[in-house]
Amino acid sequence: MAASAPTPHATGFPAEGRCGYYVEKKKRFCRMVVAAGKRFCGEHAGAAEEENARKRILCPLDPKHTVYEDQLAKHLKKCNSREKPKPDFFIQDINAGLKDETEIPEQLV
């Protein structure tokens, strides 16, 4: 029988190229990829003492992710959670029907 390779938590270290933050709730290390020369992913960069020069804050459009405070203006322009402009042909509630059944719009008569 072949012995299985030890898991990263069993050795006490995260997998190579992965975040070094230990997620207590999940009882494992974060599996996000880190940048070259870094120990933590972007989400857990605040946990590193050596990277405290830049402050991360919650995104005002979607608090599920964070962004560097000095890059907030740039982030708000490209964040996927921003409200996108509606196309010219879009009409709100076009197929919603009449609000009141006794109301008949002038255009349909």
TrEMBL record:
- Domain of life, per lineage: Eukaryota
Organism per entry: Equus caballus
Q: Report the Pfam families cross-referenced here.
A: zf-TRM13_CCCH, zf-U11-48K
- BP term (GO), one: tRNA methylation
User: Which EC numbers does the record give?
Assistant: 2.1.1.225
Q: Which residues form the CHHC U11-48K-type domain?
A: 56-83
Q: What gene is it encoded by?
A: TRMT13
A molecular function annotated in GO for this UniProt entry is: tRNA 2'-O-methyltransferase activity
What is the name attached to this protein's record?
A: tRNA:m(4)X modification enzyme TRM13
